[in-house]
Write a structure and sequence with these properties.
With 390 residues, the protein is α+β, with helices and mostly antiparallel strands. 32% of the residues lie in helices and 18% in strands. The strands form seven sheets. The protein has a three-stranded antiparallel sheet with strand order 3-13-12, with no helix packed on it. A three-stranded antiparallel sheet has the order 4-10-9. Helix 3 packs across helix 6, helix 4 crosses helix 6 and helix 4 packs across helix 7. The longest helix is centred in the middle third of the chain and has 19 residues. The relative contact order is 0.13.
């Protein structure tokens, strides 16, 4: 597998499986992948009619925020205000793809007053059920993309949760041709495994006054091959609300610094400022592996006090360094591979972590122009732009 500009390819790496590596030297900020989702589904908690009226609405197709005063908003002709679209164009596309009569009727039943999933403690199951509706809908509207979904990493593990969700889907999805798709507890468990390991979250806009949450999840088949590293050399961006075309749900992956040919390209699956114990717990519970990257090998021997000091350093401004230290940190990032010091990620935190309070985002340069690297850094969480020459 290669991307659109042949800058990356998929290879097998021992103990990692399928991975993405650079096929040529890459410049800081270079886009290595643009990927579109094969399915999207809402992660927004179900709300009562009164609460829903006061909440932020998202388009059921492109998941843009919908202004309360928007003159272009339209509803689904089949489920009324249960599903809104930001424009008639989004409505038209969705009715023949993601919001077919099958999906529409299933979602109506899923959100009915007597649904077992509407209790607050069942929110995760409700989101998983939405995924299953989207996945089985995909099987009918695009069998080839459904096969792509099944080819992604994730081994089925039938358990009480998957059996319960299969029973729910059996109730809400009442189309006879489901059996022709191989509809079974085993297939449902397999789909849930694919979702757990491969879904990317499309986040709400950054607001320092509240916890950032997910508005929707998407399955991005090519981006799913990026492995994790706690000191990533690339990061992903999405422009759900700011993009002006119909590709606003695409994700863009840019490298953070210069990379040689043949280097594995890795993302961080969560904010890089998490402490060692929390990172390990999330990776084990959510993805089923223990991380032994260079950063984790160092921090595994740290005490809790040292981790707290690291967290405090994350929020320090670059202004705290004197000029000589700043100059040293502007050397090429490849130097990190040669100098294994006790604190190998100091360079990363000082140069590639957003300094805005409560953000925790990763910085990457804007794409090069005419092969010239940009000095403007963009945060993949708060979207703040800063000049790395300041």
């Amino acid at each position: 597998m290669s991307n659109d500009n042949d800058s990356i390819k998929m290879v097998e790496i021992e103990n990692k499986g399928r991975s993405l590596v650079s096929t040529r030297p890459l410049k800081a900020g270079e886009i290595v992948l643009r990927d579109s989702p094969i399915l999207l589904y809402s992660a927004v908690p179900h709300a009562s009619a009164a609460a829903a009226a006061a909440a932020v609405n998202y388009c059921s197709h492109c998941f843009r925020s919908i202004s309360p005063n928007s003159a272009t908003t339209v509803s689904c002709p089949n489920c009324s205000t249960a599903s809104l679209f930001c424009t008639p164009q989004c409505q038209s596309v969705s009715l023949s793809s993601s919001h077919t009569p099958f999906a529409c009727q299933a979602l109506i039943r899923l959100h009915a007053a007597d649904s077992p999933l509407l209790q607050p403690h069942h929110h995760d199951h409700l989101v998983q059920a939405r995924f299953l509706v989207a996945a089985y809908n995909l099987a009918m509207v695009s069998p080839s993309q459904f096969q792509t979904l099944l080819s992604l990493q994730g081994e089925p593990f039938p358990d009480d949760a998957s059996v319960f969700l299969h029973l729910v889907i059996s109730t809400v999805c009442q189309f006879s041709n489901l059996q022709q798709l191989g509809f079974s507890e085993e297939l449902t468990a397999a789909l849930l495994a694919k979702d757990k390991l491969n879904a990317f979250g499309l986040m709400e806009a950054f607001d320092r006054n509240k916890e950032r949450s997910v508005r929707a999840y998407g399955i991005y088949p090519r981006a799913s091959f990026f492995n994790h590293d706690c000191l990533p050399n690339a990061c992903r961006f999405d422009y759900v609300d700011s993009a002006t075309d119909f590709h606003n749900t695409d994700i863009v992956v840019r490298v953070i610094h210069n990379l040689p040919s043949g280097r594995e390209i890795c993302l961080s699956y969560f904010p890089v400022n998490l402490q060692y114990s929390e990172r390990q717990q999330r990776l084990k519970e959510d993805y089923g592996f223990v991380c032994d990257c260079d950063r984790c090998k160092v921090e595994a021997n740290w005490s809790d006090n040292e981790e707290e000091l690291e967290g405090e350093m994350d929020h320090d401004d670059d202004e705290d360094m004197d000029d000589d230290e700043g100059a040293d940190l502007e050397t090429n990032a490849d130097q990190m591979d040669k100098e294994k010091v006790d604190f190998p990620h100091a360079y990363f935190f000082m140069n590639y972590m957003c300094s805005r309070d409560y953000c925790g985002g990763t910085l990457a340069p804007l794409p090069p122009v005419d092969a010239r690297p940009s000095t403007v850094m963009e945060c993949n969480v708060c979207s703040n732009l800063s000049n790395n020459e300041d």
